[in-house]
Structure formats: structure tokens, C-alpha cells
Design a protein that fits this description.
- The complex is a heterodimer.
- Chain A is α/β, with parallel strands linked by helices.
- Chain A is about 40% helix and about 25% strand.
- In chain A, strand 1 and strand 2 form a beta hairpin.
- In chain B, about 35% of the residues are buried.
- The chains are: A alpha/beta, B alpha/beta.
Chain lengths: ~120, ~260
């Protein structure tokens, strides 16, 4: 797994490539927690090049969104973890596990970033 | 028909022993890639097996053993008839699937619990998942994925005219030859057969017997009414797999249903 991190003005955009399994889910979790600890609660995950996700990766996603949305800021400043691009294999896992309705999913990162 | 393939009948069981650590997941993935490629699973089914085995191994690594004292995972894969069978054995804590909470697939985000998804995915992605445990042999997980057959893997023969004592041998000769050549999936289209004698019937029984002995299948399709009547009168509708059309018959190959 490789994560490209772009810090935009209001949003952090993470492009995740490769495999998100039990071996590297902790790396993503750690990066997200560092951002949260810095007060960066608006995240877009670009999954266009994510080839594989297993349940430990799903767990990181769900916990991250919970934490981001728990952040009590003003309505305009509310936190979230939003998703851009959902490749077919990843969407299949999302559909099987009932994750599709848990996330706001956008067709590309521009729209996802613009949604904040 | 779905795109796939007939497994080589003589693939030998493969095995792998790794330490139950997260760094072994990549090795396990390679081992399973080798399996799905060898048996010719299509890309989608191969991914399903990959994910199911990955989830199973992750469960063993994270819950079966203590992190500071990881034991081993023994994996095997083999072909059993038209199934790919993958096993994972470990000697960690006893695993009882009924202890795992059912997955929560519908609660809103705030209440959603991500537990139990691994086991759930395994059961959704594989055709069969079975756990067993005993004190000597530890936990044994057996997962099965059905291999579907490529239409081209089924040899289709069309017979015609009268199949009786005089014509049977010549008519069935190419079929016997194909079976001897190792073809295990044979479909005989009977649309042009106007008469079937008892010697013809006996010859078909023999083809069926040869194929079953090779773990293969014989199916017949498109029988004319007077020919179908022969099967009814002799009770052989229960013995042979008869189909109304060639497409129906082709679709039925490799579904795992075996004649008694």
C-alpha cells in the first residue's frame, strides 16, 4: 500500500494505492489519527488505485469516519471522511458489507473535495 | 456459460507452512494466486478466493495466537472433482464460528460495529466454509470454491438416425475415443435420433460408466418423444441426465450435481 497525501487548504486528500489488508491497515489508521490530532478532520480518500480491501481496512475506514464526524465544530467546519472513486472490486466489498450506504461517495476527488 | 475451465485431473495437493504473522499475508496471497491460476479460475472468482483466505488467515493471526508467541498456519489447496478446496490449519485457540457475532450490515454509522465481517465475507465469497477442531489436529478450516466449466471443455456429439444393434458401435466410436483421450464432460445431442434400441441404451450406459469413473459427466439433450419414451419405459430417466436443449445441458455441467 502507498498513500499520497495532499494537504489542501481545507481538506486533506489521501490517494491510496495497492492493497489495504491487515498488514497495512495500521499505517492508514496511524496517518488518519495524526491528521485528526492536528485538527485536520476533513478527509477525502481517493480509492481509484486501491486494488484490494479486506475487513481490517474497512474497520479503519468506519472508525475514521466515526471519529471525524464526532468532532463538534460549527456546522460549516464539521469533519468527515468522504470517498472519491470506488473501483468495481472495492465497491463489491462495500456492497457485500453494507458499507456503500455508510459513506458519501463521489465520482472523483474534485467533487469530493468541493463537497466540503 | 460462465467463462472458466476444466481443472487438470491430476493436480497434486500443494501446501505451505508460514508463521502466523501479518507479514505472512503476502506469502499466503502468492500461494493462493498460484492455486487460482493453476485451476484456471476467472479473475473475479480468483479475487473472491484471495479475499476469503486473507480474511481467514487474518483471523488466525489476530485472534488464534498471542501476538508475542505466534504459531504456524498450514495451508493446502487441492482440486476435488469440480471444486477448488483450500484448507487452513492452526494450533492456536479453539475457534468456534458460533462465538462470532453476526455482522452488522445495516446500522447507521454511529452504531455500526465492524466485527464479524471477515467470517461473513468468507461465507459470501466461497461456496462452502466448514470449521472443525480437535485437540490433536487443532483448528481446521476447509473452504470450497466451485470451478465452472468453459463451454469449450464439454465435448458435444450429435447422433442421428437409428441407434440399434447394427449402428451403435460405429455411432459411439468417436465418443469412446474422446473419453479415452481424457475428455471428461460429454454431451450427446439426440435431436436427430429417430430410434434407440436396447443395445444403444446399453452402449450409452457404458459411456456414462466410463465418465463417472473419471469423475466426469455425461448428459443427453433434445430427445425426440419416441426416444424419450424408451428412457421412461426402462426407468433410465433416473439414471441419465436428460435436458430439453443443448444450452440447458451445457449450463448444467460442472454444477457439482452428481448422478447417483
Amino acid at each position: 500500500m502507498e498513500i499520497q497525501h495532499k494537504r489542501l487548504h481545507r481538506v486533506d486528500l489521501l490517494a491510496i494505492r495497492g492493497r489495504l489488508d491487515a498488514a497495512n491497515a495500521p499505517d492508514l489508521k496511524q496517518l488518519l489519527e495524526e491528521l485528526f490530532d492536528q485538527g485536520r478532520y476533513r478527509i477525502v480518500l481517493d480509492l481509484e488505485h486501491l486494488e484490494y480491501v479486506a475487513s481490517p481496512g474497512l474497520r479503519v475506514l468506519i472508525e475514521a469516519r466515526k471519529r471525524a464526524r464526532d468532532r463538534k465544530l460549527s456546522d460549516l467546519e464539521g469533519g468527515d471522511v468522504r470517498i472519491a472513486n470506488l473501483p468495481p472490486r472495492i465497491k463489491e466489498v462495500f456492497d457485500l458489507t453494507g458499507f456503500t450506504s455508510l459513506f458519501e461517495i463521489f465520482p472523483d476527488p474534485v467533487e469530493a473535495v468541493g463537497s466540503y | 456459460m460462465q467463462v472458466c475451465y476444466v481443472p487438470e485431473p491430476d493436480i497434486a495437493m500443494q501446501s505451505l507452512k508460514v508463521s502466523a504473522t501479518l507479514s505472512s499475508l503476502a506469502l499466503i496471497s502468492d500461494f493462493i494466486s498460484n492455486a487460482t491460476t493453476s485451476v484456471g479460475l476467472d479473475e473475479h472468482a480468483a479475487w473472491q478466493v484471495q479475499l476469503a483466505v486473507d480474511e481467514a488467515a487474518t483471523n488466525i493471526i489476530q485472534h488464534g495466537y498471542d501476538a508475542d508467541n505466534p504459531g504456524q498456519i498450514e495451508l493446502t489447496w487441492d482440486v476435488d472433482g469440480v471444486n477448488l478446496v483450500v484448507t487452513l490449519r492452526d494450533f492456536g485457540r479453539r475457534f468456534n464460528p458460533f462465538d462470532v457475532p453476526p455482522p452488522d450490515l445495516v446500522s447507521p454509522l454511529e452504531e455500526r460495529q465492524p466485527g464479524g465481517l471477515g467470517l461473513y465475507l468468507m461465507s459470501r465469497l466461497m461456496d462452502d466454509v466448514a470449521f472443525s477442531f480437535d485437540d490433536v489436529n487443532g483448528n481446521l478450516l476447509t473452504m470450497t470454491k466451485r470451478l465452472r466449466l468453459l463451454a469449450g471443455a464439454v465435448r458435444v456429439f450429435a447422433l442421428s438416425g437409428r441407434i440399434d444393434a447394427v449402428t451403435t458401435a460405429a455411432a459411439l466410436e468417436p465418443i469412446y475415443a474422446a473419453v479415452e483421450d481424457g475428455n471428461r464432460y460429454v454431451l450427446i445431442n439426440m435431436a436427430e435420433v429417430s430410434f434407440l434400441s436396447s443395445s444403444g441404451l446399453r452402449a450409452l450406459l457404458l459411456v456414462r460408466k466410463h465418465l463417472l469413473a473419471r469423475d466426469g459427466e455425461l448428459r443427453l439433450c433434445s430427445l425426440q418423444p419416441q426416444v424419450y419414451e424408451v428412457f421412461v419405459l426402462t426407468g433410465f430417466t433416473q439414471v441419465f441426465s436428460l435436458h430439453v436443449s443443448q444450452d440447458d445441458a451445457l449450463a448444467a455441467f460442472g454444477q457439482g450435481a452428481r448422478e447417483p
